[in-house]
Write a structure and sequence with these properties.
By secondary structure, this protein is mainly α. Helices cover 57% and strands 9% of the residues.
């Protein structure tokens, strides 16, 4: 059986490490959180993490274009573009540091069709089964 979750402990790793600039301290923090969550607390460690990536500008454009943008404008994090850039950079770092599988979701400055991204995810999941 395959279970896909959106934003598990991995999301916390990204947000919580976003403000740590020193690479050594960032790695130590990530290692600490992984040990704490999966070993000490006993949360189930994912068998695989698929990181969906798009350039920051493309993601920001999508976030700003949401039909119901009140959530973005009223969200303390999402309305702070500087912080969101730190989160984005942190996500890229964590994905590389933890060797997550990455799927590129944009091409030529625009998001790829949802069906194409779906096929990329589905192909990766089938390969990992």
């Amino acid at each position: 059986k395959v279970i896909l979750l959106d934003r598990y402990t991995t999301s916390s790793l990204i947000y919580q490490s976003a403000l740590i600039e020193d690479i050594g301290a960032k790695k130590a923090f990530i290692d600490y959180v992984i040990d704490f969550e999966y070993q000490k607390v006993g949360l189930q460690k994912p068998d695989n993490v698929i990181f969906l990536h798009a350039p920051f500008d493309v993601v920001t454009e999508l976030r700003n274009a949401r039909k119901q943008n009140d959530g973005v404008m009223n969200d303390i994090h999402e309305r702070d573009l500087e912080f969101m850039k730190k989160v984005y950079d942190s996500a890229m770092f964590v994905a590389d540091y933890l060797s997550w599988d990455q799927i590129e979701c944009a091409r030529n400055g625009k998001f790829k069709p949802i069906e194409e991204i779906h096929e990329d995810v589905y192909s990766l999941v089938k390969k990992k089964k």
